[in-house]
Amino acid sequence: MQLQIWHVGEADGKPLFEVRCDGQQGKAVILTPPSEIIVTGYKESLPQGLRWYMESYLELPTGAFLKHAQAVLDSLRAWGQDGFEALFDSGGPAQRWYDDACQDELQIKIVSHCDDPMILAWPWEALESRQDGYLAQQYHMERQLNDVGRPKPQKQVLSTKQLNYCTLFPARAARTMWVSMRWLDLLLSAPNSITMLCISTFCARRP
To answer: Which pTM value belongs to this model?
Structure first.
């Protein structure tokens, strides 16, 4: 079963989401952006705290740093639990789909759909059920754009590919040059265009 979290607009200045499954859609709910979550006891937003946790915490993971790290993780967990409750535990079709999938032990795939890179970058893996734990540890999660255009066809350029081969030879390294030239002769027999420049003599060879 695939449960899709779609960003569908704004309400009161905050992003609005709805869960969809098999062509049906649940009720729209508001999720608080992580940037509006302040880490308890610190004058920083949740994204700022996570950046510090990922980049600086291990420099000194003791004392005040340990306390700071725990505050960041507690704020992240609170955001994830609130997000799960709003999406999958507040009544309506979305809660029924999730409960049915868990009861029937179905494989659940959770997909976040949005065209806003800031929202795609939210820590969706922190969504947590107070009964079942972190969704990311049990189910497959991924992010997708709402509108994915068709990929452009790749140009066939192999037939016109050119390889520039440059090598340096000591003045008296005749045997080394002979071995390299023999190897180059094999390359020159290929259909591609290859140019070789011998620095010691400044002689250019072409097929």
So the answer is: 0.69
